[in-house]
Amino acid sequence: MFFSSSRSGTLKSAGYEAGRFQEIDIATGNLLFDWNCLDNVHLNESYIQINTTNGSGANPGSPYDYFHINMIDKDDSGNYLISGRHTNTVNWQVDANAQFQLQHDVRWMPNTNDTITIFDNGSTGFLNTKLSRGAIIQLHPTNMTATLVQEYPNPDQITSQSQGNIEILPNAMLLSTGTEGILYHARSSADQGTMSYRAFRSNWTGTALREIPAIYATTPSNSSISTVFMS
Questions:
Q1: 141 and 62 share one domain
Q2: Nearest alpha carbon to residue 109 among 55, 61, 166
Q3: Which of the listed residues 51, 180, 213, 215 has the most CB atoms within 10 Å of its CB?
Q4: Domain of residue 183, residue span
Q5: For 25-47, how does the pLDDT look when each residue is reduced to its tens digit (9 = 90+)?
Q6: Is residue 84 located within the same domain as residue 155?
């Protein structure tokens, strides 16, 4: 089980908010791992300037959200992948087409410990850098570099301020644009809806509550075409 929390402190006259996560063995309650961004990421490694966005740092009631932890994943070898939406990539050389900012849903690719999938927002609403996209990026820990394997641009050239995710499916992908409420499947179709933090596709089987289906038909007064609803 993973959970995250935050705490406030002081940064000169402002407050700050720190991202932290713990891994706990549910069966025993034992703490297996504890990580705090303040012990690993310096405040000056943030994109976000004080007083420019939510978590402005203007006062203790709005602490400076310099890290903004929003995803933790763990591979089969025990390596943790931690996403801090408001921070720069530290000590890594990232190819220009693999650079990302203000991301969500960073995960290890299944059965790998060197490749990640990511929803690259490229925006906060206050800071806009590029259009949102999904991407697969390969990491090279030995020389601290990263290269783009594949990208999934959104067809409508949307910039999503927050939220969103990418799911790699067999021979396809699912891309959710978060605040923009559009869901793309395999680059070919789009469904407009409300904002969605994450969306996933799964097998689903419905079971009717009655043996005989309920049927309703309606015909608009200005049309000869009927619409039939069935459940």
A1: no
A2: 166
A3: 180
A4: 92-231
A5: 999 999 999 999 989 888 888 87
A6: no
Say what the pTM is: 0.66
- Indicate the residue type of 151: E
Three-state SS at 210: coil
CB atoms within 10 A of CB 9: 13
Q: Quick one: which of 102, 90, 5 has its CA closest to 53?
A: 102
Q: Are residues 132 and 215 in the same domain?
A: yes
Question: Strand, helix or coil at 191?
Answer: strand
Q: Which of 17-21, 162-166, 183-187 has the highest mean pLDDT?
A: 17-21
Q: Which pLDDT band, with edges at 50, 70 and 90, does 173 fall under?
A: low
CA distance 5 to 16: 13
Cα–Cα distance measured from residue 6 to residue 18, given in angstroms and rounded to the nearest whole number: 5
- 110 shares its domain with 139: yes
| Chain position carrying tokens 């869901």 | 183
CA distance 50 to 44: 11
pLDDT tens digits for range 112-142: 888 999 988 887 655 556 778 888 999 998 8
Spatial separation of the C-alpha atoms in residues 116 and 196, rounded to whole Å: 21
Query: What are 69's strand-pairing partners?
Result: 84
pLDDT of residue 6: 45
Residue 23 has what pLDDT? Answer: 95
Asked if 120 and 59 sit in the same domain, the reply is no
Cα atoms in the 13 Å half-sphere on the side-chain side of 215: 7
230: tokens are 């069935």
Q: What is the DSSP letter of 88?
A: P
The continuous run of DSSP H or E covering 150 comes out as strand 145-153
Pairing mode, strands 133-140 and 145-153:
antiparallel
